[in-house]
Amino acid sequence: MLSPKVKRNISRILPFGIIWLVSSWVNLFMDYTITDGYNYIAKDSIVLTTEIFLFSSIAVTVVGLLIGVIEVLFLESLFRNKSFGKKIVYKLLLYITFFFVIIFITYPYAASLELQSHFFDKKVWEKYLNFLTSYTFLNTNVQLGISLLLSLFYHEISENLGHHVLLNYLTGKYNKPTEEKRIFMFTDMRSSTSIAEKIGHIKYFELLKAYYAAFSNAIINHSGEVYQYVGDEIIISWKFKQGIKHNNSLNCFFAMKQALKDKTDWFQKKFGVVPDFKAGIHYGKVTTGEIGVLKKEIIFTGDVLNATARIQGLCNQYNVDLLISGKMLEALQLTAEVKTKALGEVTLRGKKESIALYTTVDEKEVVRGISDS
């Protein structure tokens, strides 16, 4: 079984291969049209045959996937804190080198197929040298540049909007409102106002970025989706089946706690404070759809969001870090290691019906148990 993190990375890398393949086919069609069905073709160009078409399609898809792997697994973290200008320069130099190596390998191989000769044949390399000084070489680089630009543009937009959000926009999944059953976890940083006053608002903003970043792996590894960042609050969501599978929604909370614990010394050294948070978990039906004219968003609406926010707001009253609705607890299949405590029923503000609330017992021990497992 692939982990949620691996599945997520695969889903982010695959579009690179698809974009490069489709882009190459569009460019091929344009070249075919311009050259009148290849009746007018430069001497350094390779005549398109079925074998060469299949080879080039596979090769360009592999190149796209390699670009995706480089972007997602290496450059994303490497350039995260770099300025936009430095990102452009570094990536430009990297990909120029990368493209040259790819062309150095793929063109001679394709030429050897056309000439029905071996890779090291003198005629193959004469054709290659002619290619490097030709208009075809320039055109190839332009085509590669377009493919790169499209794939990088897609990746940047996807990372800013959220991978699933962009796919939903492109497929039009939520053009019409859709009813879904979802789990929500509302989290809120403790003592955020006093922390901001203590360290100053600029330093607090840096802390907030580090605080969000610390949760990334926990959320990804438990199949969560960040719905919104609202100040120092994070709203995390799961489709119902994903959220109860392996108790993802609850274990995500424990993993987030552990992530902060692991960085206690780092936060203390850098900011002089260690952030902590409280959370509420609940589920229910929501209506999901696109909304907005000047700015479009995919939003959730439904009573469950207000209820979860109010459940989280009661953490201070009960002096706990986590509150789970009784309805949510019944949906989970807790192991013997996770002990819960009933806190009674409460009528949430604006509601008529009461709701049962629970918390975990000795959360520090639970977090330690999750970490060791």
Write up what this structure looks like.
The protein has 373 residues and is an alpha+beta fold. The chain folds into two domains: 4-161, no CATH class; 173-372, Nucleotide cyclase, GGDEF domain (Alpha-Beta Plaits, 2-Layer Sandwich), CATH 3.30.70.1230. Helices cover 60% and strands 17% of the residues. Strands 1, 2, 3, 4, 5, 6, 7 and 8 form an eight-stranded mixed beta sheet that branches. Residues 363-373 have low confidence and may be disordered.
Topology:
Layout: H1 4-34, H2 50-78, H3 84-115, H4 122-132, H5 135-161, H6 163-171, E1 178-189, H7 192-199, H8 201-214, H9 216-221, E2 225-230, E3 233-239, H10 240-244, H11 248-262, H12 264-271, E4 277-291, E5 297-301, H13 303-312, H14 315-318, E6 322-325, H15 326-331, E7 340-347, E8 354-360, H16 363-372
Parallel strand pairs: 4-6
Antiparallel strand pairs: 1-3, 1-4, 2-3, 4-5, 6-8, 7-8
Name of the level-1 CATH class of the largest domain? Alpha Beta
Shape: elongated
At the third CATH level, what is the topology name of the largest domain?
Answer: Alpha-Beta Plaits
Largest beta-sheet details = 8 strands, mixed
* Poorly predicted tracts of residues: 363-373
Average pLDDT confidence is 84
Q: Report Rg.
A: 27 Å
- Give, in order, the helices and strands: HHHHHHEHHHEEHHHEEHHEHEEH
Number of structural units classed as domains: 2
Distance between the termini: 18 Å
Helix tally equals: 16
